[in-house]
Amino acid sequence: MDDGTSARSRLILSVSDQVQLSPLTRHLESVPGIEVERGAARTAEGEQGAMDVLTVVAGSGGLIAAIKVLPEFLRARRSDVTITVALPDERTITVDVTNVQDAMAVLERLING
């Protein structure tokens, strides 16, 4: 878990179903040592529409703890929800109930460096 001494990083989470953003926020806020902020996603020039995203801020231990709650969240959804995780280096991984175990392993390796 984040002990407060490690550098803080950010993950950006977007959800395929915007209705699921508030439940995901509550789910993530139960994780100690992280901050969750909701805001508008950046759109590329010429793109229309505003989509909200969650920014998760924590040390690497907190980020690992935050992504570890994603499988439980996805399995509890009634619809086919996907979560796209944008890492600080701008790589993205999309997680859904069908690939959640493999995606979690990849995310942990990427966050730990």
Automatic annotation (TrEMBL):
Record InterPro entries: EACC1 (IPR045428)
Pfam families (alphabetical): EACC1
Record-given protein name: ACT domain-containing protein
